UniProtKB/TrEMBL annotation:
<dbReference type="InterPro" id="IPR051396">
    <property type="entry name" value="Bact_Antivir_Def_Nuclease"/>
</dbReference>
<protein>
    <recommendedName>
        <fullName>Endonuclease GajA/Old nuclease/RecF-like AAA domain-containing protein</fullName>
    </recommendedName>
</protein>
<dbReference type="InterPro" id="IPR041685">
    <property type="entry name" value="AAA_GajA/Old/RecF-like"/>
</dbReference>
<dbReference type="InterPro" id="IPR027417">
    <property type="entry name" value="P-loop_NTPase"/>
</dbReference>
<dbReference type="Pfam" id="PF13175">
    <property type="entry name" value="AAA_15"/>
</dbReference>
<feature type="domain" description="Endonuclease GajA/Old nuclease/RecF-like AAA">
    <location>
        <begin position="1"/>
        <end position="48"/>
    </location>
</feature>
<feature type="domain" description="Endonuclease GajA/Old nuclease/RecF-like AAA">
    <location>
        <begin position="295"/>
        <end position="369"/>
    </location>
</feature>
């Protein structure tokens, strides 16, 4: 099963339900303060909230919220202290598979609202059973008068349709939540247990499948002792890139070769892992024409150090070869010269066109990155069905909206906001006008 879309309402500046469909390449464009980062960081927040044991559905210790309280996440254009979420999957897995999971998180009313954790208010899940196509669903409502004081427990009204039989009943067994993941606190009715178990099994992998890399990235360590194992994935600031590449080289994996190939093609530099002392390793770049020269990556310029974890993340997703992986990237072009944006787009086109590609959600301001994707479409290197662009805009009242943009096989967009990416032309026009004024024309 692969996460195919998510929907959120009353979150940050997104008052109304806002849906983002995840394609192999999904881009978020928009001006500053439009809501792009808030939308993108929702996925790592939810991934960090799966199985969270602290008694609150959302893990507010996640780096994705930057220390925000639940009230800070709620849209200030509404008096509601509730956020509505929907996660949707495609494909099949095992005996049963959940297609949609809807849930709301709210702040309990009362004088202690600011100190009590928010709770799951309402939720529903729909799933299908194996090859037979039988459907079942579960609906539940938070009942604080019955479940308080233990947080995250509820009584559920369930509806099921299994092999043509329908039934509706109020189940008397409370279920405990661990983050956004429901789990059985007491023995459940078999049909109810099946739904809860299927949902839990589908949510659990999100913690590892969502791989987020933020826009503020640390440079790699100058050198690092390798103690036998690397982290399974990068941290949001890029930490771990050195260790991952060291382990890959020692084990003869494909990651270092994939990342180095990009540098070789576009910078005429080869990336290597160099042992600078026993068990201490560094990442170096050296000119292809001068094999004896090796310069530490952090001494080669900010752009090379910043793009390194981006390439490592893409290479990992490429090696995993599964559509359940979700890459979440903020400004991959950061500190790169505009000439390098198209080659970076080409790298992600190659990832998107491999068999069983991952899903990528990328926030960018780069016109060259977008045009690199369009060129790949026209040249037949990228299937336009693999691409979705969302224009994110904040209206005058502070409410943010999104507009889906698709492309045909000639890379022509279905829609484009007026005057976007016209800044270069406008500046050139103003320079020319001033020149003519100075010349007395």
């Amino acid at each position: 099963m692969a996460l195919s879309s998510f929907t959120v309402a009353n979150y940050r500046s997104f008052l109304h339900p806002t849906t983002i469909e995840l394609k192999p390449l999904t881009l978020l464009f928009g001006y500053n303060n439009s809501g792009k980062s808030a939308l993108l960081r929702l996925l790592p927040l939810l991934a960090d909230s799966v199985g969270e044991p602290r008694g609150a559905p959302l893990n507010l210790d996640s780096a994705a919220v930057r220390g925000a309280a639940f009230r800070d996440l709620c849209c200030q254009l509404s008096a509601r202290r509730q956020i509505d979420f929907t996660l949707s999957w495609d494909g099949e897995s095992g005996f049963s598979s959940v297609r949609n999971y809807q849930f709301s998180v709210l702040e309990l009313p009362g004088p202690q609202a600011e100190v009590l954790p928010p709770v799951v208010n309402e939720f529903s899940a729909e799933y299908f059973l194996g090859q037979q196509g039988n459907a079942a669903s579960l609906r539940g409502t938070w009942m604080p008068e019955r479940a308080f004081p233990p947080p995250n427990r509820a009584l559920y009204e369930t509806w099921s349709k299994i092999q043509g039989h329908e039934e509706t009943h109020l189940d008397s067994s409370p279920i405990a939540f661990r983050g956004i993941k429901p789990g059985s606190g007491e023995p459940l009715d078999p049909s109810l247990w099946m739904t809860v178990n299927a949902l839990g099994m589908q949510l659990e992998p999100l913690r590892d499948e969502v791989q987020w890399l933020g826009s503020v990235r640390r440079v790699p360590h100058r050198s690092r002792e390798f103690r036998g194992s690397a982290p399974p994935k990068l941290l949001e600031d890029g930490t771990g890139a050195l260790e991952i590449l060291v382990q890959d080289k020692l084990q003869g994996g494909p990651l270092l070769a994939t990342v180095s190939a990009w540098f070789e093609k576009n910078t005429r530099q080869r990336l290597d892992v160099t042992e600078v002392a026993p068990r201490y390793y560094a990442l170096t770049l050296g000119p292809l024409a001068s094999p004896g020269i090796r310069v530490n990556v952090i001494d080669t310029g900010e752009g090379m150090a910043q793009v390194l974890p981006v390439l490592v993340l893409g290479a990992q997703a490429r090696a995993q070869g599964t559509p359940s992986t979700v890459i979440v990237l903020e400004q991959p072009e950061l500190h790169l010269h505009p000439r390098m944006h198209e080659p970076l787009a080409d790298f992600f086109c190659e990832v998107a066109m491999q068999p069983n590609p991952p899903r990528a959600l990328i926030e960018t301001h780069s016109e060259n990155f977008l045009q690199g994707l369009q060129l790949a479409i026209v040249e037949g290197r990228l299937d336009p069905a693999h691409v979705a662009v969302y224009w994110v805009q904040q209206l005058d009242d502070g409410c943010s909206t999104v507009k889906l943009i698709t492309f045909n096989d000639m890379a022509l967009p279905s829609y484009w906001p007026p005057d976007v990416f016209s800044e270069d032309t406008e500046l050139s026009r103003r320079i020319l006008k001033k020149r003519r004024q100075k010349e007395g024309r």
